[in-house]
Amino acid sequence: MEASDKPRKKNHPPQKPRLINVKWVATIIPVSFVLSVVMSYISNEALGSSGTFLSFVVLFFFIALGILFDMIGIAAASATEKEFHSMAAHRVRGAKEAVWMTRNAEKVSSICNDVVGDICGIVSGATGALIVANITAGMDGVGVVLVSLLITGMISALTIGGKAAGKGVAMAFSSRVLSICGRILSVVPVKLDSKK
Fold first, then answer.
1. Which of 160, 168, 174, 195 could form a disulfide with 79 if both were Cys (CB 3.0 to 4.6 A apart)?
2. pLDDT beneath 50: ranges in the chain
């Protein structure tokens, strides 16, 4: 039998990876909604009967929270899985969770940078608006505009500057950042799929 008579195998074109993970998108939308509602509720309750000083404390808290989670998302994308294999083999607390974070860097970055980071930015803006309203009570139009510009500029400067500084730290000490996060996750009653 000649080689040309042999049945030829059909060459199927390689399947392209999905550009959009529909399952993940369907999961992250309700999670984002719940987190946004919870964080907005906490902010509103804290600011309901508080003075200007406590309002600034709440504002700085949400700015710092956004910077912190931005660092975690960047560290997850920067770290490599092999750095934690020996730690996991020696059963170091948090090592398995750190491995999971590196394997799921896309999801971790999405939650930390996009979900929590964006929500903190929205809540910070709303908190800033309440602070402006408290400070400018009884002021004229020019005073209101100046205070509004100063508060808005301060929020933007602290958020952008903090994330810029945190990005360098997260990339330089990505293993350390994920080790700390892994230890925290190890005591949280959440089961992580080690195969993913």
1. 174
2. 1, 195
